Amino acid sequence: xxxxPDKAFDxxxxxxxxxxxxxxxxxxxxxxxxxxxxxxxxxxxxxxxVQLLKDIDKAISDQTSHTGNALLTHAVIVxxxxxxxxxxxxxxxxxxxxxxxxxxxxxxxxxxLRNKCMAHxxxxxxxxxxxxxxxxxxxxxxxLTVTHRRTNFSLRTIKxxxxxxxxxxxxxxxxxxxxxxxxxxxxHKSDKxxxxxxxxxxxxxxxxxxxxxxxxxxxxxxxxxxxxWQTNRS
Length: 234
Prior knowledge:
Layout: H1 11-15, H2 24-56, H3 62-83, H4 101-118, E1 129-138, E2 141-150, H5 155-188, H6 192-199, H7 205-209, H8 212-217
Antiparallel strand pairs: 1-2
């Protein structure tokens, strides 16, 4: 039995070579699959930060409070990017379609927090930033100061993100399989001209990772997020 060498092809690069009308279905399928995989990576990152925040809550201190601030900022901004932002280079996946009304309300609170307190300065609904210009009159003289209170750590926000992720991540995983199946089906029925274009975009997975541990598993079945073997050429 003939053993064929492993090969990889860059479908992201192929998109630029495809005809916008004749290959419209394939272009959309590639972008849709990319979008849902990319959103899945974002949500996985958010989940990691949320888990660390839950662990920090067990041993809160001044030092861990500042660490928590960085983690919470990361979690809120990346969650918003994955579920709400209208990205130029990524399709809207529709994560919120899996939410009930209660979760949609939590989602809106997270997005408001991102928009009004983190990406832009503002007090926010719960006085995330509470600052006041104060004029003082004292026995020693008069003066000006600013009193400030800033939130580093919000258990409520952590719990809201955790609840949202418990629904969002399984929903996105299902979408990933659906998009992979769609793309695989389109590739399977593609004509020779299309495959000729794909052949001109080889991709060196081992060079891309450039890390010994990653190189070693680059071709392992477990290294792929979606295995849709029916995409093999007929």
